[in-house]
Amino acid sequence: MIQGKRIRLRAIERSDLPRYLEWLNDPEVTEGLWHYLPLSMDDEAAWFEKMRQQDAEQRPLAIEIRENQAWRLVGNVGLLDLRWANRSAELGIFIGDKSVWDKGYGTEAVELMLQHAFDTLNLHRVFLRVFATNKRAQRSYEKAGFVSEGTLRQAVFRHGLYVDMHIMGILRPEWRAAREGQ
What we know:
Layout: E1 2-3, E2 7-11, H1 17-24, H2 27-30, H3 41-52, E3 61-67, E4 70-83, E5 88-95, H4 105-120, E6 125-131, H5 135-143, E7 147-158, E8 161-171, H6 172-180
Parallel strand pairs: 5-6
Antiparallel strand pairs: 1-2, 2-3, 3-4, 4-5, 6-8, 7-8
């Protein structure tokens, strides 16, 4: 487990799938995600089995928040497409539980994943892609130290419109300097 101040990251369990299914079938939750088609429990079960076949470093982790003496699942975060020769990976995250949006849990999860990426996995660069329309996510990534690296113009077709896709990244020296400055 990766423990933070208010959250923890843990392995995803089969028992988590009903919550993920609920969230990933909510258009408001999926607005900022690549996913856009309805999912069934069979789809989620197939995803879970495929995920379990991946290297441990590339499996997403469940995000839980502490509520009194218990933990509550609110989303997931992970590193995708690890390129060991380049020491780089792409970060993906979503907070599915809308009741905890705008409370800083996403930023904390990203910060924990960066610590894991740089201190445990010895990566040099972490990047992500974010829709230009997803201002909440962009602010969260900037708080965690990500900087804009460019824009893929009209890269995604959403709701009858082409939307820009921003690329953001952070290098280990930048992450370290920001941590030392705190």
